[in-house]
Amino acid sequence: MDLRLSPEDxxxxxxxxxxxETRLGGDFRDLRGTGGPGHEHEVVEGRMAWERELGAAGWIxxxxxxxxxxxxxxxxxxxxxxxxxxxxxxGRLGHIGEHLLGATLAALGTPEQKERFLPPIARGExxxxxxxSEPGAGSDLAGVTTRADLxxxxxxxxxxxxxxxxxxxxxxxxxxxxxxxxxxxxxxLSYLLVPMRxxxxxxxPIRNLTGSAEFCEVxxxxxxxxxxxxxxxxxxxxxxxxxxxxxxRGASTLGQQIGFASELDAIVAAARARDADRDPxxxxxxxxAWIGLRVMRAFALRVLSHGAQGELPPAGLGAKLYWSTWHxxxxxxxxxxxxxxxxxxRAPPCALAPLQETFLFSRADTIYAGSSEIQRNIIATRxxxxxx
Amino acid sequence: MDLRLSPEDxxxxxxxxxxxETRLGGDFRDLRGTGGPGHEHEVVEGRMAWERELGAAGWIxxxxxxxxxxxxxxxxxxxxxxxxxxxxxxGRLGHIGEHLLGATLAALGTPEQKERFLPPIARGExxxxxxxSEPGAGSDLAGVTTRADLxxxxxxxxxxxxxxxxxxxxxxxxxxxxxxxxxxxxxxLSYLLVPMRxxxxxxxPIRNLTGSAEFCEVxxxxxxxxxxxxxxxxxxxxxxxxxxxxxxRGASTLGQQIGFASELDAIVAAARARDADRDPxxxxxxxxAWIGLRVMRAFALRVLSHGAQGELPPAGLGAKLYWSTWHxxxxxxxxxxxxxxxxxxRAPPCALAPLQETFLFSRADTIYAGSSEIQRNIIATRxxxxxx
Amino acid sequence: MRFAFTDEQEEIRRQxxxxxxxxxxxxxxxxxxxxxxxxxxxxxRRLGTELGLAGLAIPDVxxxxxxxxxEIVAVIEALGADLAxxxxxxxxxxxxxxxxxxxxxxxxAALLPAMARGAxxxxxxxxxxxxxxxxxxxxxxxxxxxxxxxxxxxxKRFVLDGHSADLLLVAVRxxxxxxxxxxxxxxxxxxxxxxxxxxDGTRAQAEIILEDVRVPASSRLxxxxxxxxxxxxxxxxxxxxxxxxxxxxxxxxxxxxxxKVRQQFGRPIGSFQAIQHTLADMxxxxxxxxxxxxxxxxxxxxxxxxxxxxxxxxxxxADAFLACAxxxxxxxxGIGFTWEHDAQLYFKRARAGRTLLGSTTAHRDxxxxxxxxxxxxxxxxxxx
Amino acid sequence: MRFAFTDEQEEIRRQxxxxxxxxxxxxxxxxxxxxxxxxxxxxxRRLGTELGLAGLAIPDVxxxxxxxxxEIVAVIEALGADLAxxxxxxxxxxxxxxxxxxxxxxxxAALLPAMARGAxxxxxxxxxxxxxxxxxxxxxxxxxxxxxxxxxxxxKRFVLDGHSADLLLVAVRxxxxxxxxxxxxxxxxxxxxxxxxxxDGTRAQAEIILEDVRVPASSRLxxxxxxxxxxxxxxxxxxxxxxxxxxxxxxxxxxxxxxKVRQQFGRPIGSFQAIQHTLADMxxxxxxxxxxxxxxxxxxxxxxxxxxxxxxxxxxxADAFLACAxxxxxxxxGIGFTWEHDAQLYFKRARAGRTLLGSTTAHRDxxxxxxxxxxxxxxxxxxx
Lengths: 388, 388, 384, 384
Prior knowledge:
CATH superfamily of the largest domain in chain C: Butyryl-CoA Dehydrogenase, subunit A, domain 3
CATH architecture of the largest domain in chain A: Up-down Bundle
Strand order of the largest sheet of chain C: 2-3-7-6
Helix content of chain C: 40-55%
CATH architecture of the largest domain in chain C: Up-down Bundle
Shape of chain C: globular
Largest sheet of chain A: 4 strands, mixed
CATH class of the largest domain in chain C: Mainly Alpha
Order of helices and strands of chain C: HHHHHHEEEEEEEHEEHHHH
Number of strands of chain C: 9
Number of domains of chain A: 3
Number of domains of chain C: 3
CATH topology of the largest domain in chain C: Butyryl-CoA Dehydrogenase, subunit A, domain 3
Number of strands of chain A: 8
Structural class of chain A: alpha+beta
Distance between the termini of chain C: 43 Å
Strand content of chain A: 5-15%
Mean pLDDT of chain A: 92
Radius of gyration of chain C: 21 Å
Mean pLDDT of chain C: 95
Structural class of chain C: alpha+beta
Strand order of the largest sheet of chain A: 1-4-5-8
CATH topology of the largest domain in chain A: Butyryl-CoA Dehydrogenase, subunit A, domain 3
CATH superfamily of the largest domain in chain A: Butyryl-CoA Dehydrogenase, subunit A, domain 3
Order of helices and strands of chain A: HHHHHEEEEEEEEHHHHHH
Oligomer: heterotetramer
Radius of gyration of chain A: 21 Å
Shape of chain A: globular
Low-confidence stretches of chain C: none
């Protein structure tokens, strides 16, 4: 057991930190702390420019092999994420393209697909969104009803996707669609790469309980995708989609924890400012939250350490359930620390202070990207081998 | 809404109280506080004599119609239970005969069965036990495999029952057995009244985690029950067993709460004696326990008030889940109040102080008489009408 | 012994439910929230004046219905179920109880008739910046004026419906350090008020600044002291608890309904044990909360001291509502998290309940003190 | 960066597991509990002496294996899985760390070799009647004797394996109010000890009464002070946490195994979502607890100050084990509640962990103080 990074990795950390300091001290100064879950609507133009800045400096696709990426080790990816979060650099608009679609293509794409799609992602020039969930198929992806029919050289897509982040900004969407209507459930699905800027694509933002619009609905009404832009074989979309889901648990988790830590810092500060820390119960709840952060960090390091030597271990299946539950409880703690002022907004009807935002938005954490119920199902069957 | 009792009922309360004071001041003095869940092994001979004393005074079968009972109203039954508990009168050995079998026979028995079995129960002379669960059918009563075959004028019973309280003392057992092996699950079961003191019945106590033996296993190996001693029609035992289960939620719940209150009093006293009440978190957990007791009382009154006008309302389905969860938490609170002394016994290997007993035994509360999981299933389907 | 509403009480509830439904139900509450009014005046005209809710607990000699806290609870449960944006809790419960408890017969006669008609609403302004519900936290003052009246100074916060009430009942620290209550028309010179935007947009709060507000001697309700105010607050906490029961029941109802129709994995989600057990836990919370709230209503009407009952009930029902509202979102999944779905309105209403009329923590501490536990803290007559 | 045991460490674990299994596993622990010995001497001979666990963390110059806290954690997790009744936590972790932290090189040479051989066991006697783990609670005293030695007086309680240890390390209040640690052979005149019967019969505790116990000057370990003792306790808490991980994993394992075979309603109970979700929650607790325990082991070996790490780890792992043990009983239903089933042994062991080596509440308070929260209380050098 050795929890130290190598001197070379530490030098890499210095390099990342220096770059972020410089760039976020200049033109992009105002972007610090913007974006991220619950804040995706903020300073979108500036953050798109920032994506290109990241791309030009070679920070996107760090772990991809050359030529698109730098082939960096998992620990260097972690270091980048940590420093990125520590610098309060803006929430990534390119996350889905880089970490979901990019990772999926790198593993399962054709050489032509990699050549066409990875470089613009790595340059921060093309943004992606994810077309998986549907109104009738939230947790149940196999229930997808969006249809794609081959008409000449292109797939014609008809259906509706929901809970799609960045759909109004994205250039492309990866869409899970039913290409063989004769098959049911997991069979007959395909994983298509669909341009968003074309007739037949309509995006409608969904306002969430914080008052802002984090997610969108996307309506496909005869939108086209080139015949060759299917990942994996037609009819094997389920397998590809499951691979994409697996990439959701990656190096970004340690960066996320740095964001959590700064939320906890704000709670500690509020507790001290309001004398709420004279109450031992409040102090212990804060201590529990802090312990939870330590747990998350140790857990992530342990899982990633195994992952660096091959497959992610089954323990990793518990990460989402743990952090989402922790974060929801953190939001409740924040409100209790604020006392009756927890109720008072900055402005009507829903200008939320950051801790209020944490409280409200954290209710989504146990729902999106596989609800807590689904997470437990997955653990029970995959990690524990319990019968269905 | 009127939460007062009538003056006549209050006089009845005085009568009960006076009787208990007198009798528990005399020969039965040493029985105070003995018996009850977790303590069923205590002073058994004395408590059997006490049962006869209760019977002679007409306190058993209070709600049954004459001649076996007094036809007392539900509220008078509640009053009796409350005063009984308040006087710390001994845990009832006759509970199963009176409240489960008696109530079942009163509703579904033949005139001959009532005449044969109710009077000795009411006199406190015959004790009953319950043969429902089996090693392979704990929560799943329909999975019963004990067989009863008609051989001439009697049923011959073969099989094993488990979690049977008082089996080593009981004169009779009501046994759910499969009388039609061709039928499966709920069909083909019968509800038989089986004498315990006969060849072919073996009782083995089960030691539980408190070190005492609360429950027994009962082995039937060709034991006999008279042909006519089946309640309901042969093959309709499931319906009868379900009726018996329903009687488990009755007037005794308010008496039980008085026992809970005295456990809470002991915790309050321990907290003060150990200065544990200087910790606001401990104080609030005690306050929550006290609030829970108030909730239970209001809940029971409300449910019984509806019950007094006919059927128990669906709300009543939540009672077991609530009190068992509350009680389990009370045990945990007790341990935390005791600090490191919670660990120290009166004597090895398992002489437990009362609060330790509460802690350990309360783990059974969420398991026996329908586990918490089963309770939630029942609420979901019966009270909320959710699909199976 | 009868633990149920009478037929008459059930009939009032039915009328209230019908009036709310006619007025648009939760949709009307959403409108009142989104248009920033914070009060549904049309609905209050119907409920308060025409159905007599404004004067439900006001004696009939003053033009009210002459009913009591059992009817208050019966009615407010129905209001809570649809999040009705009306000043029932602030005016018909809290302020009415305060005037009845603290005021003289003459003051009753002067203040209550207009309230009973629904022509005037009132509220109690007692909390200040700390939000501490105890009388020790009252810093606003009343100083005797040479002309025989008083001058009020200070800032009140978290005042329910404080932006719209016509009459403010202001708790102040009077001569000698005792607490006193003054009835101050909101239009009195020196009274400045600002609506505080709230996360729960269906219930308004305000800050009230008293800048040398001159009031006549008769504005002081009764002989002063904290006890009548405490009793009024305790009764209002019981009403709030019952309102929360209504909200929790609504969360359970729409969640059960959704679970029966929403399909995932080819089955209604209500057939999955995880969802069933969540809904079963909600059911137990709703039914237990209802039981303690009804019981407390009876005590509010009949028991000499309800401080502990009220605190216990308030803590329990606030928690039950919040748990049910949170579970309702989880059961609904993504859709429950949207602005358009009503689940968020209940969730925010429930969240606000953790501190409204005192925090649930303060309530538990009240219970703990009553058990003789060591949290000794003076909560007697509020005198400094 | 490598967050895993080395092959050598895994090999030690395998040997330990094999030795425990050969010795009867949990059945042996049950026997040690039921026969009242509270220690499985045969197993300790095998583990402590033959496999070298007694001296695992003792430097090789003193006859030990010269390994450290990462190996301690690797090994004790295996001991915890089978509830092995051996004085590893008390002697090889707690007392060994205390001697190493507090003693001089001469004292190391005098005390450690016998312990490394397994010929002698030791324990730390630091808690007293209050059970308060802070140094402020130490009332036992050491007074200088005219002949150059000391006289010890006082009563120690909750002493792990205190009935069987050959050497007692007794924390006392010395001259000037500072805390000091004395190494006292249990056979010293004036030392009376009584085994305290414990609910967790697999782990013994004792009360130790010191009646004018005369000890030489050399019995005082090093220069005195609370810090070395605190560091030893902190390291032992990490070991205990890892032991609890082993116990929690065992609870999960036998519960999963049972859920796969036990049939109800015609299906294995492990196919019911309610059981699946309970087991999934146990899985997350086990894996998270293991992660923080391993991380703490590394810190115990490499970090300059581990008080907060250790407190955080101890609180988390104790809770995780208790939750898993309680859930194990619930998953098993009636059978899990019987004396014969092992679930109760784990449940009682886990319960004891809430206060062993300091309560989980005290641990949380330690963490809170480290965050600058207002629970200010002197926890510095223990000097009065």
